[in-house]
Amino acid sequence: MRLTFHNAINNKLTGTTKTRHATNPSTNTLLPAVPVSTPEDVDRAVAAAHAAFPAWRDLTLDDRAGYLLRFADAIQANRDGFTKLLS
């Protein structure tokens, strides 16, 4: 299985010109490449977060909780995949 990782900036998956690999310490095999972000990538992510914040701030507590619960449910539904990915 070949995995491709991206940054998520402003609700879009973006690549970087540079990537790096880590090594699985239990098997000594290379893990999939992950993006190496530049300061400009971080600046774009921060700018997108600042732009998104007013809409989030204006949501009711119940609406925010709903989004967070759906996110938690998605993590739970995919926990086996996350476990394999992280170990």
UniProtKB/TrEMBL annotation:
Residues 14-30 have a biased composition (Polar residues). It is an enzyme of class 1 (oxidoreductase). Residues 17-86 form the Aldehyde dehydrogenase domain. InterPro entries: Ald_DH/histidinol_DH, Ald_DH_N, Aldehyde_DH_dom. Pfam families: Aldedh (PF00171). GO terms for molecular function: aldehyde dehydrogenase (NAD+) activity. Residues 14-35 are annotated as: Disordered. Its EC number is 1.2.1.3. Gene3D superfamilies: Aldehyde Dehydrogenase, Chain A, domain 1. It catalyses: an aldehyde + NAD(+) + H2O = a carboxylate + NADH + 2 H(+). It comes from the Eukaryota. Belongs to the aldehyde dehydrogenase family. PANTHER family: ALDEHYDE DEHYDROGENASE-RELATED (PTHR11699). This is aldehyde dehydrogenase (NAD(+)). It comes from Cercophora scortea.
